[in-house]
Design a protein that fits this description.
Distance between the termini of chain B: 62 Å
Structural class of chain A: mainly alpha
Number of strands of chain B: 3
Radius of gyration of chain A: 18 Å
Shape of chain A: globular
Order of helices and strands of chain B: HEEHEH
Structural class of chain B: alpha+beta
Largest sheet of chain B: 3 strands, antiparallel
Strand order of the largest sheet of chain B: 2-1-3
Radius of gyration of chain B: 21 Å
Order of helices and strands of chain A: HHHHHHHHHH
Strand content of chain B: 15-25%
Helix content of chain A: 55-70%
Oligomer: heterodimer
Largest sheet of chain A: none
Number of strands of chain A: 0
Number of helices of chain B: 3
Largest interface: A-B, 13 and 16 residues
Number of helices of chain A: 10
Shape of chain B: flat
Strand content of chain A: under 5%
Chain lengths: ~250, ~110
């Protein structure tokens, strides 16, 4: 792969992740457990969507085939989407949403921190804007994980169930695909060895405070970053892309 | 119980168990904190974060105070006559009898 192709691939992984997790969080709109959390989650949705837009715009430049952010978001198929599998996991209940966000936030907080040092200036700028948002997201998700985990018997068991179910999608965070390996060697993005211990440390700390045990399940799903998704993504894209597919080029 | 009723009573329970907090926001450095509304939260820490999410989404603030509503002692509206009306005819308490130097602005 050429330089640009690797970079494009990396941008799409995170743009798609932002877009899909933004969509998932947006699904809570009007359904939050209380008004305050409804707003918190939809705020996060917009943070992720904003980040996705910046990355799509940059991907459009890098791709060099005059694709716009909208083309990239609304006209790519499931197998072309590169989001992390965690992002497409259904909201299920509040505990699942908290667990999903925690795993992702704990990953992004260190990734973004490292990306600020990237030799690619644009990536560094996007990372430094996003890190402020993610720091707050992390605060929110880790605190809720602790509250629910170390809460009542019911909340503890719901939290543990959610963690158990999502665990198998966390391995993917640190299994680099070809493009990532290339960029890591070039010093444009951090290596998995830099990120993985930090993530594990965060998980260990927060879980111990939350009295949640780390699942001992070894098997890990991968594939999101190379376009192999769970069945959930198709439904999201059908929802999200319907309008542009039915009325191509339609504008607000 | 129907599912909806169940959800409703669940929500009322949360509202019953979670105390009410009054939210004060300083919109800019140098200005006072102003009361902007109230919300429910499990504790003051959560109230602070909820206030951030509910009341500062449009850059309304640089600082937030939260106070549990029960900690506020308020004057009784039925006593407002005795409390406030005696001040009505004492205009000499207003500093309007002084001429202000021109250099003084925003008084």
């Amino acid at each position: 792969m050429t330089d640009n192709k690797n970079l494009l691939d990396f941008l799409l992984i995170h743009a798609d992740t932002g877009n899909i997790i933004g969509h998932r969080l947006g699904e809570w709109c009007g359904h939050g457990p209380v008004l305050e959390q409804d707003l918190a989650m939809t705020n996060f949705a917009l943070d992720h969507l904003g980040r996705a837009r910046l990355l799509y715009q940059y991907a459009g430049e890098v791709g060099g085939n005059s694709k716009t952010e909208d083309d990239l978001a609304f006209l790519r198929h499931e197998y072309e989407y590169k989001n992390l599998l965690l992002a497409e996991f259904s909201n299920t209940d509040f505990a699942h949403t908290v667990a999903r966000q925690f795993f992702l936030d704990a990953y992004y907080i260190d990734l973004l921190e490292e990306l600020i040092k990237s030799s690619d200036q644009k990536i560094s700028q996007i990372a430094s804007k996003s890190l402020k948002e993610t720091s707050y997201h992390y605060k929110w998700s880790s605190e809720w994980l602790i509250r629910l985990g170390d809460g009542t018997e019911v909340s503890h068991s719901k939290m543990q169930t959610a963690v158990n179910q999502l665990w198998e999608f966390t391995g993917e965070l640190f299994v680099l695909v070809e493009s990532e390996t290339y960029l890591a060697n070039e010093g444009i993005i951090p290596s998995a060895d830099t990120l993985s211990p930090k993530w594990k440390k965060r998980v260990k700390e927060i879980f111990s405070e939350a009295t949640i045990s780390i699942p001992d399940r070894k098997y890990q799903q991968t594939g999101g970053k190379s376009g192999n998704h769970t069945e959930r993504l198709g439904y999201i894209l059908a929802d999200m892309q319907y309008m542009q597919r039915a009325f191509p080029g339609q504008k607000w | 119980m129907l599912k909806n009723d169940h959800e409703k009573s669940h929500k009322t329970n949360i509202m019953k168990n979670w105390p009410l907090f009054e939210i004060f926001i300083r919109s800019k450095n140098g200005l006072d904190h102003r009361h902007v509304g109230s919300l429910h939260a499990a504790d003051a820490h959560m109230a602070l974060e909820n206030a951030r999410d509910v009341y500062t989404r449009r850059q309304e603030g640089v600082s937030i105070w939260v106070v549990e509503s029960k900690d506020i002692t308020a004057s009784d509206p039925s006593e407002s006559g005795a409390f406030f009306e005696p001040a009505e005819d004492k205009i000499y308490r207003h500093p309007t009898f002084y001429e202000l130097p021109e250099a003084l602005k925003h008084m």
